[in-house]
Amino acid sequence: MNKTEEFMMYIEEAIAKHLPRAQETDPRQALITSMRYSLLNSGKRIRPILTLAFCELCDGDAQSAVDFACAIEMVHTYSLIHDDLPCMDNDVLRRGKACNHIVYGEAIALLAGDALLTKAFELVMSANLSAEKRVAAAEILARFSGAAGMIGGQCIDLQSSQQELTMETLKQMDMGKTVALISAACQMGCVAAGADETVQKAALAYAEGIGMAFQIQDDILDVIGSKEELGKSVGADQANQKKNYVSLLGLEQAKALVKSYTEQAIHALNFAGEKANYLKELAENLSKRRH
């Protein structure tokens, strides 16, 4: 079993434990089934993997951070459910399956997202770690997922349709929409291991590099990828007349930016020597992904 498989095993077991099936007689069955539908729909689990990997990098026990990792994945999944709603991106396909609201209706999908967000903070605050670590992780998750982070980035994204977008605003959007939760994932792993402020700053630099590279590669795949490979609709930005790195810079310059941000991520972890090899390889692999 390689490192990614090991981390995935920890994550999937914990997620299934924290969100068991509802009894048929439970009046909340539709809600819980809807939550499970999206959360257990085997995404790449990049964010929770980063939490476990940074905990291990900082000489912590990866399994001690698994509740933090699950919390990150719950926040990410809630954001996807809401992002796909008709009032947002109005999408129909996510991770190769019909979007949550297509299956369960808009009202239940909205509540499923709300419930996953709330459950995430319950997990952080009940994790088997010190009160100091739990509070620090909760603050990080709240800050990076809120108006100054992911939700703020989504707001800019919604307002960018049919508007001229500068490179500066585009980066601000992606630092919120994509990089923020990745930053939270990395930092929460550091917190679980009790890492110092210097390491947390390095984690932020890595997160910016890997997050921006991931988003720009997403923009590239939205142009050259296929629905079958990606498991979601392609050409969405063009259809919605939204600017992205490909439309602003062209395909080749966008690819060069992916390379540059990936190098930033790798360089940020040079201080850790061979201990950082897994995270460096992860950055390289994500920069070349096709889905």
- Which structural category fits the helices and strands? mainly alpha
The fraction of residues assigned to DSSP E strands is: under 5%
Main beta sheet: strand number and arrangement? Answer: 2 strands, antiparallel
The low-confidence parts are none
* Mean pLDDT across every amino acid position: 92
Share in helix? over 70%
CATH class value: Mainly Alpha
Rg (CA only)? 18 Å
Total strand count, please?
2
CATH level-3 fold name: Farnesyl Diphosphate Synthase
The total tally of domains equals: 1
- CATH homologous superfamily descriptor: Farnesyl Diphosphate Synthase
Taken in chain order, the helices and strands follow as HHHHEEHHHHHHHHHHH
Query: Shape from CA axes?
Result: globular
Protein described:
The protein is mainly α and 291 residues long. Helices cover 70% and strands 1% of the residues. The chain has 15 helices and two strands. A two-stranded antiparallel sheet has the order 1-2. The chain is globular, with a radius of gyration of 18 Å. The mean pLDDT is 92.
Brief write-up:
This protein has 291 residues and is an all-alpha fold.
Sum up the structure in keywords.
single chain, mainly alpha, Farnesyl Diphosphate Synthase, two-stranded antiparallel ribbon, 15 helices, 2 strands, 70% helix
